[in-house]
Amino acid sequence: MKIFHVETGCHLYGGALQVQYLMQGLAGLGHRNVLLCDRRSPLAQAAQGVAKVYACDTRGDLDLPLVGRLWRLLRRERPDLLHLHSRRGADLLGGIAGRLAGLPVLLTRRVDNREPRALVPPKYALFDHVVAISQGIAAVLRADGVSAAKISCVPSAVDTDVYRPQRDRAWLAAETGIAPQQPVIGMVAQLIPRKGHRYLLAALPALLARHPAAQVLLLGRGPLQAQLQADIAAQGLAERVRMLGFRDDLPRLLPCLDLLVHPAEREGLGVSLLQAAACGVPIVASDAGGMPEVVQENGHLVPPGDVAALAAAMACVLDQPAQAARMGELGRALVQRRFSVAAMVAGNLAVYRKLLGGHAAVSQPELATVE
């Protein structure tokens, strides 16, 4: 089977990382991948060896030349199907190109926001099928009018060989100056409003009253960086909150956390939640989107925007270290059971076969079923 993937994001995390996992798994099963991605993305290099890569400049939803560029590549490569992974111009424009090329078109939906109701019928008519990475996203699609028969749920994955419990607080102390006995809370997210950093900052005074030695690490980058730095200073939290920016050593850093917090207003699933759970870290997150599918016995869910509930849930985890350790064990077991790379690859492969009616060559049996 030959699959043409389109991922126009500029960073190798979140959806782009899932595309890398998927192409590696497909290549390992003997399938062929072709990838169109942004030349600025590390994915262009990371995909070498598992895909034929076309790297170009992409310009988002208004990148109308993408239609012609992708159509020409599809005519040249003649894949069995087109798999669109990104909303950054790739969904609508990619769907048009796929239709012009006469190919089955699959869209992976990774976000749980509602779309303008008038746009949904013409947009989703471009796609033969839609993969939702969580049941929460699938519910949003159905609420927007997409037929349930057109939706499959294939959860995102985490590499549990890379993300695993390997706590090294001596390393963290050398890296950050945080003493091994100090509680460490982390938040891994883009610095954008919907991720809810402001709720975490607002909850910290109550938490610090009970755990005055706690340290908070904010990992990620985005347009809110300057505003968050100003808010941290204005609220007198500069000695307790550190902004570490984008880190490429998350597999080493995450296991050092005592707690991961994710107070997002909405979230498709949350790759950082999967990574933390795989590292044995308990989680406090909002009860929204796909997050309840990751946070079960391994943490606490709070209403989005409820600062008091957020502070209480964080304190509850830090108050009970033995229970927190058990939560971490349950979280790792959960991701190994439900969010493995093998299951994600098999789920997408099952959708491919469904779209192609069983006519394309298949080199290996399925490893899992599609929900």
Question: Which secondary structure elements does this structure contain, and how are they paired or packed?
Answer:
Blueprint: E1 2-7, H1 15-28, E2 32-38, H2 43-46, E3 52-56, H3 65-77, E4 81-84, H4 92-100, E5 105-109, H5 120-124, E6 129-132, H6 135-143, E7 151-153, H7 169-176, E8 184-188, H8 197-210, E9 215-219, H9 225-234, E10 241-245, H10 250-253, E11 259-262, H11 271-278, E12 283-286, E13 299-302, H12 307-319, H13 321-338, H14 341-356
Parallel strand pairs: 1-2, 1-4, 2-3, 4-5, 5-6, 6-7, 8-9, 8-11, 9-10, 11-12, 12-13
Helix pairs in contact: 1-14, 3-4, 8-12, 11-13
> What value does the Rg take, in angstroms?
21 Å
Write down how many β-strands occur, each being a DSSP E stretch of 2 or more residues: 13
Summarize the main sheet: 7 strands, parallel
**Order of adjacent strands in the largest pleated sheet:** 3-2-1-4-5-6-7
Uncertain residue segments: 358-371
CATH topology of the largest domain: Rossmann fold
Please describe what this structure looks like.
The protein is of the alpha/beta class and 371 residues long. It folds into 2 domains: 173 residues, Glycogen Phosphorylase B (Rossmann fold, 3-Layer(aba) Sandwich); 170 residues, Rossmann fold (3-Layer(aba) Sandwich), CATH 3.40.50. Helices cover 39% and strands 16% of the residues. It contains 14 helices and 13 strands. The chain has a 7-stranded parallel sheet with strand order 3-2-1-4-5-6-7, sandwiched between helices. Helix 11 links the parallel strand 11 and strand 12.
